[in-house]
UniProtKB/TrEMBL annotation:
GO terms for molecular function: hydrolase activity. This is Cysteine hydrolase. Keywords: Hydrolase. Residues 21-214 form the Isochorismatase-like domain. Residues 77-102 are annotated as: Disordered. The lineage of its organism: Bacteria, Bacillati, Actinomycetota, Thermoleophilia, Solirubrobacterales. It comes from Svornostia abyssi. Residues 77-96 have a biased composition (Basic and acidic residues). SUPFAM superfamilies: Isochorismatase-like hydrolases. PANTHER family: FAMILY HYDROLASE, PUTATIVE (AFU_ORTHOLOGUE AFUA_2G08700)-RELATED, PEROXYUREIDOACRYLATE/UREIDOACRYLATE AMIDOHYDROLASE-RELATED.
Length: 223
């Protein structure tokens, strides 16, 4: 039998084999975690996401030690914005929008400083960095191909924000047959109450989209 880890989780233990499991880190970009990016443009207090970084660093270190597939995603658009739906560009009716110049470069545009992943979680050689135009990581990307080609059946899902890109991606993954564990302290929201409810929505109804546990439960269960 393959080496499995059993993580105490909601609604019951999550069992996985590191060889068939990928760590997915969603949108840990400067534009969401630091001032003057997309998150702040939307009216949010970006400091609320900072507490996800330290536990996520530990999980990323453990995944690297185990040789797990690691996938980083970034939400953003081509410099010419041809992949940006007008609906997304104009939503919020703000003074600034996606593509507007800011201190960290053009907001949510690929290649700009603010669009890239924070230094504390910088990808290393061999890790996939996947650019996505939408909230879900499967939409208009080659994520499913990459997972299937690597024999991945299970996902450990982390990143920001819990009720937006993490939720959308977990729902997309669940519909494609992937078994998802979402880490409660490695995900974060600008709205603490949305974070709590989003996690409950995942594990309710017998695990309708997946499982929820904290990073300590995962790390203690690793082989
Ligand atoms: N606004 C918000 O909560 N999130 C996003 O726009 N994108 C992600 O969640 N990455």
């Amino acid at each position: 039998p393959p080496p499995t880890a059993s993580v105490p989780a909601e609604p019951y233990a999550y069992e996985f084999d590191p060889a068939t499991t990928a760590l997915v880190i969603i949108d840990m970009q400067r534009d969401f975690l630091e001032p003057e990016g997309f998150g702040e443009m939307l009216g949010n207090d970006v400091s609320l996401l900072a507490k996800t970084v330290e536990p996520l660093q530990k999980v990323l270190g453990a995944a690297r030690d185990l040789g797990m597939l690691v996938i980083h995603t970034r939400e953003g658009h081509r410099p010419d914005l041809t992949d940006l739906p007008p609906s997304k560009r104009d939503r919020g009716k703000g003074e600034k929008t996606i593509g507007s110049p800011g201190p960290k470069g053009r907001i949510l545009v690929r290649g700009e400083f603010g669009h890239d992943i924070i230094d504390d979680l910088a990808p290393i050689e061999g890790e996939a960095v996947l650019d996505k135009p939408g909230k879900g990581a499967f939409y208009a990307t080659d994520l499913e191909l990459l997972l299937k080609n690597n024999g991945i059946t299970h996902l450990i899902v982390t990143g920001v924000t819990t009720e937006v890109c993490v939720h959308t991606t977990t729902r997309e993954a669940n519909d494609r047959g992937f078994e998802c564990l979402v880490l409660s302290d490695c995900t974060g929201s600008y709205f603490p109450e949305f974070h709590e409810m989003a996690l409950k929505m995942i594990s309710a109804q017998g695990g309708i989209f997946g499982w929820v546990a904290d990073s300590e439960a995962l790390l203690s269960a690793l082989p």
